[in-house]
Specification:
One of its GO terms (molecular function) is ribose-5-phosphate isomerase activity. This is Ribose 5-phosphate isomerase A. Keywords: Isomerase. It is an enzyme of class 5 (isomerase). By secondary structure, this protein is of the alpha/beta class. The protein folds into 2 domains: 10-141, Rossmann fold (3-Layer(aba) Sandwich), CATH 3.40.50; 150-219, 2-Layer Sandwich (Alpha-Beta Plaits). It has helices at residues 7-10, 20-31, 46-62, 73-82, 118-127, 159-166, 206-211; strands spanning 39-42, 67-70, 96-99, 103-104, 110-111, 131-134, 150-154, 173-176, 193-198, 216-219, 221-222, 228-230. Strands 2-1-3-6-12 form a 5-stranded parallel β-sheet, sandwiched between helices. Helix 2 packs across helix 3 and helix 3 runs parallel beside helix 4 (73-82). The site of ribulose-5-phosphate has 18 residues, from helix 3 and helix 5.
Amino acid sequence: MEWGKTILSSLEWGKSISNREEKERVAKVISSMVNDGDIIGAGSGSTAYLALTKIAERVKNEQLHIRAIPTSQEIRMTCARLGIPVTSLWEHKPDWTFDGADEIDTEHNMIKGRGGAMFKEKLLISSSPRTYIIADPSKMVTKLGTRFPVPIEIFPEALTYVEEVLRAYNPKEIKLRMAEGKDGPVITENGNLILDAWFDNIPDNLERSIKSITGVIESGLFMHYNVQIIS
Ligand code: 5RP
């Protein structure tokens, strides 16, 4: 078997991406921002995946030397498949980061984490001097929590305790995220569980309040982050 001509190289991802045309459009904008030598934080999800494929075309055609810091194993594999070299936050500070989002309100607050990668995504966004959020128009909402719950990554044995404390913030519903087609919970790349919490109202301090609960690793609430939206 020739190394590189393996299952990884033959994988065809992204066949069932929703709103593909709109996502391709914003992905293209991101690829046009890449400069030779850039260290780029690469977000997760289908929009980020499309952006990486467009970046890879420029890297190949223009012989650019860039490195990506992936926010998930899936995106790390995508980089490997597309021939984009990767690095880490131990070695490099990103020049900029791009990522997708599930909901964005009028003040650019966001809910992220349908893919469960919000901890590393928040780490990359916090470490980057500039972040671009690429979002098709369906992601724009007048009020956060309209279509998606707030995902909360928790240490597994903290499940009962975190649920008890979370109830004080009056969620409409809290669910343990289950793996599709399986009788078990989703386990994150960090070995943790995800609680999806629905709130009628998401006040500014909810992100901090959730984060302060012992056992919470991170939430998918992004309130007042320094991001530019490309929609
Ligand atoms: C993953 C994320 C994604 O960026 C978010 O779910 C958007 O995904 P998509 O681009 O597939 O709509 O936060 O944790």
